[in-house]
Amino acid sequence: xxxxxxxxxxxxxxxxxxxxxxxxxxxxxxxxxxxxxxxxxxxxxxxxxxxxxxxxxxxxxxxxxxxxxxxxxxxxxxxxxxxxxxxxxxxxxxxxxxxxxxxxxxxxxxxxxxxxxxxxxxxxxxxxxxxxxxxxxxxxxxxxxxxxxxxxxxxxxxxxxxxxxxxxxxxxxxxxxxxxxxxxxxxxxxxxxxxxxxxxxxxxxxxxxxxxxxxxxxxxxxxxxxxxxxxxxxxxxxxxxxxxxxxxxxxxxxxxxxxxxxxxxxxxxxxxxxxxxxxxxxxxxxxxxxxxxxxxxxxxxxxxxxxxxxxxxxxxxxxxxxxxxxxxxxxxxxxxxxxxxxxxxxxxxxxxxxxxxxxxxxxxx
Length: 365
Hints:
The protein is an all-beta fold and 365 residues long. It contains no helices and 27 strands. It starts with a strand and ends with a strand.
């Protein structure tokens, strides 16, 4: 297998209004358009995320900015969410919202490595993203805030599967279990939810973040996470686990062997997966894309190569570790497989060559 890069560009470029774009997830609509949602905020870690979206009618080559989602909520909540498509063509947004206490506040506390208390939300569009239902909340089942970078996975059976990572808050006395990926499950279209753990890491100095779940072509569910090391030194390779019963139970937590950071994935035929991830500390900085065929014993990486190279790994030459994430110069990649056997990779970046939501479109052969 190999990649041929068809085009690099921007879904959205940061303008002179002082706002910066982050996240960047895409989904294919019923009529074949590509919809990308992303957040605008005043600066990294500012508690003022506002969801926006852009649309492409030519498979991601050119983009039209559509504007904000729920503008009436922008003063009340900071909302960060990700888009996905259900098998029936409905579109979903899943993420978190944080109440805004005062303008300009940060949602990040460096002392506790925590975030402001928040809650999970979801929304649905049945008209290809032209309108979205008002956000509905999910009760957080465990102590701590929620870190929710991934979209909801709607399985072919109709089950809703939504991952999150428990996170510290500003309260240093609150003891949060940071070493597992929680999966929220609903079998009645969001009316009721239950939860289980998909991934658990065992190291005393470890924690997880940037977790993701997707349904593979053979019906198995794949969960992955950034396997972080809290102290000095390198993180661990990204971890994964597999469910063979639609998320009810999960196999062992295993190393992907890939020393990545934030990561996402999308299914390919024959049980394979595209695994996209950031690289700031090991090898050439940028966005990398691997093809793998995971089992309960091994991730089985078939190919692994950089698809977008970064001029800057961080804005001010910091460590590139998660504890210095507010200085990152790019992040949070996602990948979407299109009907013509191309892949669309999106990510945010703050680079000398341009800033905003960047993209790479590739042909897989």
